[in-house]
Amino acid sequence: MGGGDDGAQAGAVRLRPLLREDAARIHEWASQPTACRFQPWGPNSPAETEVFVDGAVAAWEQGPQMRWVWAAAAADTVVGIGEVQRKEVDAAEISYAVHIDLWGRGIATCIGRLLVAWALENLDVGRITATCDPRNVASEHVLRGLGMQLERTESHSLMLRDGWRDSYVFSLARREWSARMEE
Ligand SMILES: CC(C)(COP(=O)(O)OP(=O)(O)OC[C@H]1O[C@@H](n2cnc3c(N)ncnc32)[C@H](O)[C@@H]1OP(=O)(O)O)[C@@H](O)C(=O)NCCC(=O)NCCS
Description:
globular, binds coenzyme A, alpha+beta, eight-stranded mixed sheet
């Protein structure tokens, strides 16, 4: 699992850097209200999805690199995306989304495992963090399934289309992940 800057894989899902040609596929879910229900963005217009993809692709060329956005692919079909962002000196934040037609098949859990493994193998950080809307039960399950612990709840942390949302902040220490890998 994991390894290298150019890709990682777990089971049938592998990560590879996002490409401009992935925009149309990503737009299939980024344009849908259900997929961005708990997000501050969307539903996207095609132009908004292009802006997101352009920024994600450009981040691979920036130095020092602070943001790594991956396409999650299964048998050469993009099934979702995953992102690692370096926001604090000692921590990297993960986030993910799965194509709306493919929810409930364990894909986000696969992506999450790959992101955590990649970040801990390739970045000098002691902690992985993630946030989710408390109403986003599926994402909370993904994070708990990765062994992440709920650290705190931030009130009114993000403005959504229907008002402020709270955020759960989860974290996982490097030593906890290593212990899980040895089980
Ligand atoms: C959140 C999201 C990534 C989950 O993707 P997924 O591939 O369907 O998730 P998985 O199939 O790996 O399921 C993970 C867990 O959530 C549970 N789950 C899935 N949908 C659920 C729902 N609607 N209600 C309750 N639990 C749910 C699964 O049973 C599983 O739990 P388990 O591991 O304890 O059995 C997906 O819904 C999505 O892309 N949402 C939009 C973007 C988003 O919210 N990203 C997260 C940002 S914080």
